[in-house]
């Protein structure tokens, strides 16, 4: 079910229409595996310095072990084979760091969470996006700063207080943009906004978001989000319970 949904969403954003492998690790992959190479016209020039690719990957990844493709020398995604090699729509081989803002307000059964409707896939999602890289130093933007910046850009909400905590950090499995050699590593930041007399602040969909709104945490259907964001929602519910 999830494999078919990923395939349909990949096709919607311009990826080759190829099956998503049933095998989710590199060690049990059969000898007949024949992925398709794809890099979108929007990505930068090809990365030819593989030594630089590996230095960056080692610096940015949160995964304890990265595997190398024995033929191309490129990194292999910890999320497993996708049926597609190259960078897809991602700008870098190896990990591409992102940050999501999980903003909530309210208490007990009345907790609401801020979600957007993605422009590319049409799914509900937490506001978020790629962490910016300093063009001079190569330093990657702090995940909390990135998450709150994305929330402001996509919904108009500017956070000026609240309890901030790390909700999750890891490889985004089943991401429609992942390829065998380029993948998303996400940090989800939970910010519990302080109570306000008028309720949650007003929002509107901007930038990559078609729309935005506050949803009761318990009522959001996980099927309406991507697999990665559905997992984040389940973590949020457990955090609120405990």
Report on the architecture of this protein.
The chain is an alpha+beta fold and 242 residues long. Helices cover 21% and strands 27% of the residues. The chain is built from four helices and eleven strands. It has helices spanning 2-12, 50-60, 143-155, 227-241; strands spanning 36-39, 67-68, 75-76, 84-88, 94-105, 112-118, 124-125, 128-130, 163-171, 182-192, 209-216. Strands 5, 6, 7, 8, 9, 10 and 11 form a seven-stranded mixed β-sheet that branches. The longest helix has 15 residues, at 227-241. The model has no long low-confidence stretch (mean pLDDT 93).
C-alpha-based Rg, rounded: 18 Å
What overall geometry do the principal axes of the alpha carbons give? globular
Q: What structural category characterises the helix and strand content? A: alpha+beta
Low-confidence segments, given as residue ranges, are: none
Summed up:
This protein has helices at residues 2-12, 50-60, 143-155, 227-241, and strands spanning 36-39, 67-68, 75-76, 84-88, 94-105, 112-118, 124-125, 128-130, 163-171, 182-192, 209-216. It has 242 residues and is of the alpha+beta class. The strands form three sheets. Strands 5, 6, 7, 8, 9, 10 and 11 form a seven-stranded mixed beta sheet that branches.
